[in-house]
Amino acid sequence: MSASALGSYSGPSLPQAALPPPGAAASGNNAAGMKMKAGDPASVKKTAQDFESFFLTQSFETMFEGIGKDTLLGGGNGEQVFHSLLVQEYGKIASQTGSLGLADTIQREMMHLQEVR
Q: For the chain, which residues make up each domain, given as ranges?
């Protein structure tokens, strides 16, 4: 994906609660602003899996933009609302299967960075 494509992205944005507050790394907060113990494998794994889920959701959202709406039974405001929820669940499920392996890589890097401190 090019930088220009990222700059023009108009899909759903990351919820405010999921953005780390300023200084979160120094205070030991995870992406949701919750306190996490340095080196806590369960907490690091959850954070890595949440990130992978968000990444996959954004990828799926972009992928599904090119698919037309079902004219027979689809369309309308209801489909718009529930489509984003469906894509979000696709991202969560794909992340839980571990088939991409992104969460494992992120978890390994996070643990390594906490050891370096």
A: 38-117
Q: Torsion over CA of 24, 12, 60 and 45, rounded to 10 degrees?
A: 20
In eight-state DSSP terms, residue 90 is: H
Q: Coil, strand, or helix at residue 94?
A: helix
| DSSP code per residue over 28-87 | TB-TTS-B--TT-HHHHHHHHHHHHHHHHHHHHHHHHHTSPP-TTT--HHHHHHHHHHHH
Q: What is the largest CA-CA distance in the chain?
A: 58
Within 8 A by CB and 6+ apart from 96, the residues are: 49
* pLDDT one-digit tens code per residue, 33-69: 555 566 688 899 999 999 999 999 999 999 988 887 7
| CA 63/CA 83 separation, integer angstroms | 13
Interatomic CA distance for residues 106 and 46, integer angstroms: 11
CA 32 – CA 101 distance, rounded (Å): 22
Using an 8 Å Cβ cutoff, are 110 and 47 in contact?
yes
- The residue written with tokens 């992205």 in the block is 9
